[in-house]
Amino acid sequence: MRFDDDAALDSSEVQDNRGGALGGIPGGGKTVGGGAVGVLVLIASVLFGFDPGLLGTGGTGTGASTGTGSGGSSASASASASDLAAECRTGADANSKEDCRIVAVVDSVQAFWKQTETAAGKSYTQAPTWLFTGSVSTGCGDATSEVGPFYCSADDKVYLDLGFFDELSSKFGAKGGPFAEAYVVAHEYGHHIQDLSGTISRGTGQGENSGSVKLELQADCYAGVWAHHATTTPDPGSGKPLITELTQADINLGLDAAAAVGDDRIQQKYQGKVTPDTWTHGSAAERRQWFSTGYKSGAVADCDTFA
């Protein structure tokens, strides 16, 4: 995956709070995540039978699912809030720095959905990505890195500790890489589209046929739809695509990441058996399938996992 070296990045949609604390107001929004339940959260939920979606929300949210815990920031997550705008100016920066790559992916994903929603006669509300380390207070309540990347419907933000990407490889066996990171970000923005459409309220329950699983698989499909259009979506500033190259090898890394956080893969690894009646995100095969469906067709209409 490569970005146009000369493209101008808009860092205003990525709010850098690493090392700080967001003074959010706990509310009743829904938190939905892109990976699998954090290792400790998963093990505890298996042993004690509680809803892992309630962890990290201060007991005030209605978290239908969570992401994979990171417990810390990555080595490249070193920029302060003021540094982000100064360091992430062009596509060349995105090609060389992880922080700036996240900025570029957020720009691309939001440009695509704004264009798509506008073409469909709908309005699109921008949803910033909030970078944090350790813990954060959100509109859905307090959360820690243990819940991994997630979207909060109460404040319309995506929350991300970049350390998650290290654990995606080290704990869950994904090959990683720039597009694996892009897949995770695009999945979370899929939840934002579900929030705008009202679909997010259908993501409830556990089990392989639950609303929670269907919601997560649809977000995977939406990530694939964005990937299909990534190299043709014009950047609002220049009118040219921000992403200039996306190879099959990149897509394969995205598929690999999707499979790595399948419920069956994680359950087999950490509890030694697969229990489909507790699934909240779907199997490895299903996650690959729905990302592929979106990528191959590029059509939002083909992502109706609830049908």
List how many beta strands DSSP finds: 9
By secondary-structure content and strand pairing, the structural class works out as: alpha/beta
Query: What does the average pLDDT come to?
Result: 83
Q: H/E element string?
A: EEEHHHHEEEEEHHHEHHH
Radius of gyration: 17 Å
Strand order of the largest sheet: 2-4-8-7-3
List low-confidence stretches.
Answer: 21-28, 34-79
Could you give the distance between the termini? 33 Å
Biggest sheet overview: 5 strands, mixed
Assign a percent range to the helix content: 40-55%
Gross morphology is globular
Describe the protein.
With 307 residues, the chain is α/β, with parallel strands linked by helices. The chain has helices at residues 39-48, 81-87, 91-96, 98-119, 163-170, 178-197, 211-229, 248-260, 263-271, 284-297; strands at residues 2-3, 14-16, 31-33, 129-131, 135-138, 141-144, 150-152, 157-160, 243-245. The radius of gyration is 17 Å and the shape is globular. It holds the Pfam family Zn_peptidase. Its main location: membrane.
Protein traits:
307 residues; alpha/beta; 5-stranded mixed β-sheet; 9 strands
Secondary structure layout plus pairing:
Blueprint: E1 2-3, E2 14-16, E3 31-33, H1 39-48, H2 81-87, H3 91-96, H4 98-119, E4 129-131, E5 135-138, E6 141-144, E7 150-152, E8 157-160, H5 163-170, H6 178-197, H7 211-229, E9 243-245, H8 248-260, H9 263-271, H10 284-297
Parallel strand pairs: 2-4, 4-8
Antiparallel strand pairs: 1-9, 3-7, 5-6, 7-8
Helix pairs in contact: 1-9, 4-6, 6-7, 6-8, 7-10, 8-10
Organism: Streptacidiphilus alkalitolerans
Membrane topology: Single-pass membrane protein
Region (Disordered): 1-26
